[in-house]
């Protein structure tokens, strides 16, 4: 036990300063470190993972506790993660561990998940980067999944502090080469242990057969064809080896500008209309080159715009929609609302939380994305028009909007396999630069933009508003967002299929070395046990009833019947120069010319949108037809499970949507039991998963943010004064904290 401050008894007008007397020698403190070390859990390393540096007697603070309680342990840094090894992990009971990630533990942070590192110097918090001249007494790590870790280094040996702090800063902030990512170390070490889940039916779209299957599924094979002209990436390294173009488009046109200026098929609607995307042609200053490009685009346009049979509406997402800078700026402000260091900070910001939320503009960006997707849906569904999305590289906002349109219009994309196939088709094969947008290599902060996270947030709005329409849960979306930073899967760690193939040794099969075989993120068995995976599947999903041939014959799609709205009929070509005008606008967009107004972006378009939107929401929802979100102000909400899950004050213990789900599952289970009694049969498998309700009810620590947030465990470990070890002799602090002490008895 450390003694309290002792006040001297000298005379005079000014009382002498109190002195602090310690009855524990420093060597006794270090002797107690050995007892802590003996209790620590073993560091589990993945195949290919190597320990880089470590520090003992590190105190991991309990985040929500203002009196700075904590747990002693060891802080380690490997080439895959930062991990804290404390002696409290054994306290986790089986119920709490039911949603445990098999790859990343509760106190693990992958190096790619580190967002910002701060040090505390004399109670002042400063960002850390580069070489340090002075080392902090506390380390604070902000994560991209919005966790916040506080590590006290006051009791750690000085050389260990230097080693662990410098190591963490270097391995999380220094620019990396692609081949130096842990992804490759893991792939090489786990070559014989990369079995995939046999139940994973996700379409990867890495073969011509996959694209032909998708064309047949959407009935797009009448007007479009899958081509292999880019096989071996001979034409363009930006495009996938296989993709789909209009049947009337000559393959030599694809070769003309290395795949730029080519309408690439995304999806076909039930009425024959299609969603297409196109990347801009290289900007040219020479008049002769501009004229060549203009003639080329004029010919391309004739293949997709043939009035009155086929009409195309163009949407230029580069100049008439959000910018990537808008998205990054909004999210940078938005995430600060959830990176809370302690309870005091949480309550200090509570009074102005909604104004800060509004000022971030993140929810408004989500609303604009959903609105744009509804506008395009209206063109496809109600006006029977093809829609062509334009963007400089067609790999950011094109991926976002085309995916949202398909989630709204195609019920297959609302199943788990269908959604995963959609991400593969539009994002992975669509060439979204995950490596740059997630800044995995730490080479340029300017390229980092959370476009994919914005897409998941938009999908969450739909899941939240229409739960029975989706085969997956919000928990599925949350763990998918977390998987962006797991470098054992290849899914989100390359900028293009070509970059992946060439770095995995698949482009040249004549090499003697065996191509690396990486896991896909869609194999959820790598991260979760079967019981935990049940929380990814929505038990309230309304499956589409299977019809026999007699019922199916002559039947139309439900949403086609529901949305045969008297809005605007298919517009035929105006008599005066419509084709010429549309072509000129398209050419100007693709050549980078500034235009004042997008095609059809008139008051008439807004009227059509509003009538379409209001008509749909005035009718009963068909969960296997078209699905539109509410986009009015209060309807766009914060994705609480992802953004608030690590903040204890934000939990509703025993309440929230999870409580409602729990009751519904209980009722469903009871109905199933009654059905079994009525039929008087013993079924080995029920229509509904019997373990679902018990999985929720078994945990006494249930909260509104289940399964991530649980009732916090208050540790009985040392109670440290807020001022810390070095300031214990301060006069005012001692007077105010007469009863505070440091108990080293159980260290």
UniProtKB/TrEMBL annotation:
Residues 205-643 form the Myotubularin phosphatase domain. The keyword Cytoplasm applies. Residues 657-684 form a coiled coil. Belongs to the protein-tyrosine phosphatase family. Non-receptor class myotubularin subfamily. PROSITE patterns: PPASE_MYOTUBULARIN. This is Myotubularin-related protein 12. It comes from Vulpes vulpes (Red fox). InterPro entries: MTMR12-like_C (IPR022587), MTMR12_PTP (IPR030576), Myotubularin (IPR030564), Myotubularin-like_Pase_dom (IPR010569), PH-like_dom_sf (IPR011993), Prot-tyrosine_phosphatase-like (IPR029021). It is found in: Cytoplasm, Myofibril, Sarcomere; Sarcoplasmic reticulum. Keywords: Coiled coil, Cytoplasm, Sarcoplasmic reticulum. Transmembrane segments: none annotated. It comes from the Eukaryota.
